[in-house]
Amino acid sequence: MIDEAKQRRLEEQGWQVGSAAEFLGLSAEESAYVELRLRLSEALRAQRRRQRLTQVELARRIKSSQSRVAKMEAGDASVSLDLLIRSLFALGASNRDLAEAINGASATVA
Fold first, then answer.
1. Cα separations (Å) of 89 from 15, 26, 72, 102?
2. How far is the C-alpha of 101 from the C-alpha of 43, rounded, in Å?
3. Does 82 reside within a domain?
4. pLDDT for the residue numbered 105
5. pTM for this structure?
6. Number of domains in the chain
7. Which of 2, 16, 18, 72 could form a disulfide with 22 if both were Cys (CB 3.0 to 4.6 A apart)?
8. Which residue segment(s) compose the domain that 93 sits in?
9. Which residue numbers in the chain have pLDDT < 70?
10. What is the pLDDT of residue 7?
11. Contact, 68 vs 79, CB < 8 A?
């Protein structure tokens, strides 16, 4: 969310301020899907870092490549939700951890 004073200054200079969903013309469902992918990606990165694993080490664990792990953590659209979720489970995440990540309660899966 943008600071109100900053938004006011930008608008006074002729800029339009809005959300990415507005800019891209996303429906509520599309916006929710993008948010879900980002939350799972953030949870994966946080869990990997907490376990002090490199992307290469995680890739070996899930039988993938470092570049694929980087795409997963960046929320790349080419990465399936299935792979994100399986990777979180491979790092020891529970169903509850996933639910918390999805709900946004904490993007840091315990």
1. 44, 30, 14, 14
2. 6
3. yes
4. 52
5. 0.76
6. 1
7. 18
8. 40-110
9. 1, 105-110
10. 83
11. yes
Residue with the two structure tokens 């990777």: 87
Position 1 in a domain:
no
Determine phi and psi for 72, rounding to 5 degrees: -60, -45
Residue 1: CB partners within 8 Å, gap ≥ 6?
none
- In this structure, which amino acid lies at residue 95? N
> Long-range contacts made by residues 44-51, C-beta under 8 angstroms, separation at least 24?
44/72, 44/73, 44/84, 44/87, 44/88, 44/91, 44/109, 45/73, 46/107, 46/108, 46/109, 47/88, 47/91, 47/92, 47/93, 47/108, 47/109, 48/73, 48/91, 50/108, 51/91, 51/92
Residue whose structure tokens are 């490549």: 65
24 falls within a domain: no
Task: Identify the helix (H) or strand (E) that includes residue 84.
Answer: helix 81-90
Q: What separation in angstroms does the CA of 105 have from each of 75, 96, 102?
A: 19, 11, 8
- Confidence at residue 76, expressed as pLDDT on a 0 to 100 scale: 93
The conformation of residue 105, written as its DSSP 8-state character, comes to S
